[in-house]
């Protein structure tokens, strides 16, 4: 499933991270993914957020609803996107075959 997912992404647009989030929204599998972000002040400067509240993916970042409050997270703060089982879908600096 994961490789089929990535193969579809390879032919989509230039912003791979945005394509990943849009695919998660379109296939309605938000509860199967989580995102690790750079968050100053948190222990280790990282924070893990479930994507259950993912609202949209814009050209600059994503909007996630957390406890009834929508938060904008710019793409440059996203370090990792992974499935709930730990499989990494995106890691900052990861190379994609085009």
TrEMBL record:
InterPro entries: MJ1316 (IPR040459). Residues 17-92 form the MJ1316 RNA cyclic group end recognition domain. This is MJ1316 RNA cyclic group end recognition domain-containing protein.
